[in-house]
């Protein structure tokens, strides 16, 4: 029951409402967050909410058409299938952040898989050593591209387009005209996509650690911003985000446990996302990357070694492309001219770029994060999985994927236009 606050009714004195101050603060925080989200959407700013909404629509549509889409088996397979393309896409994010593009990642992925197979199967090199050589080869290719771009001034588009052709040709040369090489199905690389942690505690532990880690990280950032007098997130928003993350994480863990448990490939992918995000958002080097994406001359005047950062980003892209190529070879348990041509012809490249851009990484540089890849690659692979269950031909899948990519790029361009009109760079 409401009680007057010690003055005549209507004198402006506070009135008790029966709600505690904490409850009122929660309500105000959530109201502010809702207004902020609504304003962002109205102004044309993209965010994960739109991608999540699109992903939900995709799941609902395909589940209505085929009830196997959301089955534990299909979702577990989906969790493995996203890893190869997702790792390549994370490398693409690093390059996009500095306003450049790497068109060679598909060919580098194929080259890494072929190099591993040739060394291990044809020449008897131990698997662990063949893996190291394949990954280092990807790093070297990235450094090669970065050198021509950063130090010689050759446009990245031209350098990596030439690389697409050169490395795809080298892959075909290593494998031979009809030299399909089958890798050991019980070996190290094959286990990357076939190994599962069948103990229920593994998946639930990852969900718990991820949720707790997010909460601690965000609260620590809030405390630091508040102490420095900077804008900070209200606690209501933090708890809401944490609760949503916990629901999604534990639901995913429960679903995976209903099939074969937590896939090793998915765990590795999540670790790569966490490490990559930490490097970009929590280190001085990561801040230099974003600064370079904001403007080359401004970054140079701030004392940033532009050439070194550029070379490093292409090295990261080449390295992750090679790692992604090993996961692709693992899923196929082979390396062949057919898969090499498919990678070099552009499908892996297009899917990786689409995953990064659909997830929210800008083609104009300076905006995005590795976590955007997770949402983007889920959209791409969910479409592929749903189409596969329905028996739809590849041509239709390509058109749908292309349409989704065009919509994401158009939204990115619209967001940039809105920001420019508002006076933001």
Provide the descriptors you would attach to this structure in a database record.
425 residues, mainly alpha, ABC transporter involved in vitamin B12 uptake, BtuC, two-stranded antiparallel sheet, two-stranded antiparallel ribbon, 17 helices, 74% helix, globular, disordered N terminus
The gist of it:
With 425 residues, the chain is mainly α. The protein has helices at residues 21-42, 48-65, 72-96, 105-122, 127-151, 156-175, 191-194, 200-227, 235-257, 264-282, 284-294, 296-301, 306-332, 337-345, 347-359, 371-390, 394-421; strands spanning 181-182, 196-197, 262-263, 334-335.
Polypeptide structure, described:
With 425 residues, the chain is mostly helical. The protein has a domain at 48-198 and 260-357 and 369-407: ABC transporter involved in vitamin B12 uptake, BtuC (Orthogonal Bundle), CATH 1.10.3470. 74% of the residues lie in helices and 2% in strands. It contains 17 helices and 4 strands. The chain has helices spanning 21-42, 48-65, 72-96, 105-122, 127-151, 156-175, 191-194, 200-227, 235-257, 264-282, 284-294, 296-301, 306-332, 337-345, 347-359, 371-390, 394-421; strands at residues 181-182, 196-197, 262-263, 334-335. The strands form 2 sheets. A two-stranded antiparallel sheet has the order 1-4. It is globular, with a radius of gyration of 24 Å. Residues 1-18 and 40-45 have low confidence and may be disordered.
